[in-house]
Each structure stands twice: as structure tokens, then as C-alpha cells.
Design a protein that fits this description.
- The radius of gyration is 18 Å and the shape is globular.
- The protein has helices at 6-9, 40-47, 71-82, 154-161, 179-182, 226-238, and strands at 10-13, 17-22, 52-53, 62-68, 87-95, 103-105, 109-111, 117-119, 129-136, 140-147, 203-211, 217-221.
- It contains 6 helices and 12 strands.
- The two termini are 33 Å apart.
- The longest helix is centred in the last third of the chain and has 13 residues, at 226-238.
- Keywords: Isomerase.
Length: 240
């Protein structure tokens, strides 16, 4: 895998914060299982010595991630996360047609520490997400997801509880999208195995809004990466 150039990922920067558009397959922080692997924190520290990643995205998830350039800025944003003042919007492509109109899911999530997450009403921590359908295809739906809390896998598992698993999210039984399923008469060469349109689950952190050190709103939108754009283009063309 070609590692990204940090400067190319920046979509916002001031004296206190950097917002990058994280590519898929790059971890937010150091992972125990991937010692020595490039991640957003490592790249950020090469760019700005005191950089701290303020929140994380799953490795496969692309999109907006905020980095503080100094300890004061990190504390300032940490407090906003704690008080649920940071507004985040994700886009997901789910398998099937779903009409979500401000659907509120508040199912508690238990994280047993081994990247294993379950809904647990007794032991789980509070988790709340709002869902709205943005665009309908014949077999898929583009969904806007607004998490109120920030639990691990929250959007993914909350969608799965609605039987609307994110495309390609094997962990929650989401099936990948193949061109052969969309395009009539699509044939693949005999000795070739068809690859899914997206080689990951279709989830992107589209927008984030938080207050800067001057208490003014900072609102950032992260464009879709190439694979997400390609999926939507093909759905527009063959599944509209």
C-alpha cells in the first residue's frame, strides 16, 4: 500500500487544529497488532511535533478526523466530545431499501476490549444515533448517520440492528456490492475472480462541527474518497 502524504490529506488548518480526510485502510492511532505501521497520529507528529489525534475512526472508515496542534487545543476539544457538543455526520451505503426519517436508535453497546462489540441492555454503555435516508436505489440506500455518543462500531452495529447492514461490513453481515449484481450481462473472464466495487465497508465521516479556541464554529466537509464515489456512480448508473 502506498502511504499518503500528510499535507495532501489536510482539508482545514489553523493555529490550533488540523482536519484531515483520512483515507481508508490507515489506522487513526498506533495499533498493538500493527507495530511500525504508518497511521494518522504518526504522520501528524512528523508535520507538527505536539500533534494529538482528538478522536478515532475505524481503520476502514474514511473521512474527517481532527488533530490538535497543542495540549490546550486537545483539552478544549476533548471537553466538547465529553459534553456531546461535537456534531458528526457520516454517510453509509446499506444493503436494501430503507426509509429512515430521523430514526433514533438508542441501544447500549458493550465493548469487551477485543474489537468485539455487542448490544447489551444490562452491561452496555449508552449509545445513540439518528438515521436519515438521503437517496434510494433499487437495492441499496444512501444513509446519513448522526451519532450522539461515540462508541466503538456504533453506527455499524446500530444499522445492523435495523437489518440494514452497511455494504461490505462482514462483521455485521453486510454483503459487498459486485458489478455483476448491478449490470445486466456483465461477464467476468473465466479464470478471474470478481472483486467487490468497494474492498471495505461503505462508511465515510462526511462532516464535523466543533468550536475553535475562539469559541467560533469550525465546520468541515470531507469529500468522498475514490472508492465511495465509484460505488455511488455505479449505483446511479445501474441501480437507480
Amino acid at each position: 500500500m502506498k502511504y499518503p502524504i500528510f499535507k495532501d490529506l489536510i482539508i482545514f488548518e489553523n493555529d490550533d487544529y488540523i482536519v484531515v480526510n483520512k483515507p481508508p485502510f490507515v489506522a487513526s492511532l498506533d495499533e498493538r497488532s500493527a507495530a511500525g505501521e504508518v497511521n494518522i497520529l504518526r504522520l501528524a507528529k512528523q508535520y507538527s511535533a505536539d500533534a494529538q489525534v482528538c478522536h478515532r475512526l475505524d481503520k476502514e472508515t474514511s473521512g474527517a478526523i481532527v488533530i490538535a496542534k497543542n495540549p490546550e487545543a486537545y483539552r478544549h476539544l476533548s471537553m466538547q466530545f465529553e459534553r456531546r457538543k461535537v456534531k458528526k455526520i457520516y454517510h453509509a451505503v446499506v444493503d436494501g431499501q430503507y426509509q429512515f426519517d430521523n430514526l433514533f436508535v438508542d441501544l447500549p453497546i458493550l465493548n469487551d476490549g477485543n474489537k468485539n462489540v455487542t448490544i447489551d441492555r444490562a452491561e452496555g454503555k449508552r449509545a445513540e444515533t439518528y438515521f436519515n435516508s438521503i437517496k434510494y436505489y433499487k437495492h441499496y440506500t444512501l444513509v446519513e448517520c448522526k451519532p450522539v455518543t461515540g462508541r466503538m462500531h456504533q453506527i455499524r452495529i446500530h444499522l445492523a440492528t435495523q437489518r440494514a447492514a452497511i455494504c461490505g461490513d462482514h462483521m455485521y453481515k453486510g454483503k459487498p456490492v459486485y458489478l455483476s449484481a448491478l449490470k445486466k450481462g456483465y461477464r467476468i473472464a473465466k479464470d478471474e475472480e470478481e472483486q467487490p466495487i468497494m474492498k471495505r465497508f461503505a462508511l465515510h465521516a462526511k462532516e464535523i462541527t466543533f468550536k475553535g479556541m475562539d469559541e467560533q464554529d469550525i465546520h468541515i466537509e470531507a469529500p468522498y474518497p475514490k472508492d465511495f464515489t465509484t460505488l455511488l456512480k455505479l449505483l446511479d448508473k445501474f441501480d437507480a
